[in-house]
Amino acid sequence: MCTYTTVKDTVDGSAKGPGGSWFHVTDVTVYFDHPVHAMAEHTLNIDFAAPDRGPAARVALELTADSARKLVAAIQEALDAVPLEMQV
Amino acid sequence: MSETPASSLTATGALTAGSVKISGDGGDEIEAYLARPEGDARRGGVVVIHHLPGYDRATKEIVRRFAELGYDAICPNLYWREAPGAAADDAAAVARANGGIPDERLVGDVAGAAAHLRALPTSNGKVGVIGYCSGGRQSVLAACSTDVDAAVDCYGAFVTGTIPEGLPLKVTTLTDLLPQLRTPLLGLFGDDDSHPSPAEVDELTRILADNGKDFTKHSYPGAGHAFFAVDRPSYNAAAANDGWERITEFFGTHLTAAGS
Predict the structure, then answer these.
(1) A residues 58-87 near B, CB within 8 Å?
(2) Number of H helices, E strands in chain A
(3) Please, which domain of life does this record's source organism belong to (chain A) (predicted)?
(4) Backbone phi, psi, residue B154, to 5°
(5) Is the CB of residue B240 less than 8 Å from the CB of residue B191?
(6) Measuring CA to CA, which residue among B92, B97, B54, B104 is closest to residue B76?
């Protein structure tokens, strides 16, 4: 199944990408579809990208649905533990 | 040169393949992957439309298989403009983030690829088009919109049915275009697919029948989406093997020049 559903947003952070170098990421794309590499029929795919630096400036994740939910929970748990004054 | 049936071109299996530049929509120069059997016998051509994940190794293998079957075959890189020279997966990520590619541009790129094939000294003038996944829909689109002689739709979603509300991909169904289908169409689907669902395939069958179009459909029990994809868990050997036989027979019928 191709869901074609794609969620886009902007982000502000850094990722370690091709060639082992860090770069500033500005965009995130999230979608559930066929992976390129993961051995699952469908995965939750996340692309962190910096379009200004070209198509190769991208860090990609392909996670099974269960793994993606664990990631969401882990991120939420970590953020919840942060005192408000540190969330800047 | 003499016209030679495609099946007799495969005795040695020798072929050449590699990237070329072709004139795409609007005269834009784009990359394409061209594979040709050895020899100078006249033969038909096949335009391969890659799936949403792009102009990748698996698609190039399909192009070479058509050359091995005796056709001049070509796959235009539909994402060349957005990401020239990029890795296939990176280019696909850019295209997806942009909402896909415009239908008008796809038609122009397929027309350019078909013209490139017809200009080859080995061309018998016949060109078929085949696409997989999103390319399946685009194959039908091309067959409704440009000059090709036969078309194959491998599990293309959104040919019929309804587009989910809020879908970021800029895609429409082709129901309004289907009465303009210019060529015989072969459709290969999986019973377990949901995009397109069996109901959507039935809708396609009904519309084409109502309009007197030449449509042959095969839907395979136990097969889901992307059953031709040899590098994916979705690969279904029984469906893919039979599908290749259907494609070989279909193109053999429609891409052979009259009188040969």
Answers:
(1) 58, 60
(2) 1, 4
(3) Bacteria
(4) -100, 105
(5) no
(6) B54
DSSP A44-63: EEEEEE-GGG-TT-EEEEEE
Q: Domain-by-domain residue ranges, chain A?
A: 6-86
Q: Which residues of chain B approach chain A closer than 8 Å at the C-beta?
A: 52-53, 56, 82-83, 86-87, 89-94, 96-97, 99, 133-134, 157-158, 164, 167-169, 171, 193-195, 224-226, 232-234
Inter-helix orientation angle B103-118/B134-145, to 10°:
70
Res. B10: pLDDT tops 80 = no
User: Coil, helix or strand for B210?
Assistant: helix
By the CB < 8 Å criterion, does A7 face chain B? yes
* Domains of chain B listed by start with CATH number: 13-254 (3.40.50.1820)
Instruction: Give the pLDDT confidence of A6-62 residue by residue, as tens digits.
Output: 889 999 999 998 788 999 999 999 999 888 899 888 899 999 999 999 999 999 999
Residue B45 has pLDDT above 70, yes or no: yes
Contact check, Cβ <8 Å, A1/B194: yes
Q: Inter-chain contact A2–B87, Cβ cutoff 8 Å? A: no
ipTM of the complex: 0.76
Q: Which residue of B has its CA nearest to A55?
A: B90
- Bridge partner list, A29: A8, A47
- According to DSSP H, which parts of B146-258 are helical? 198-210, 237-254
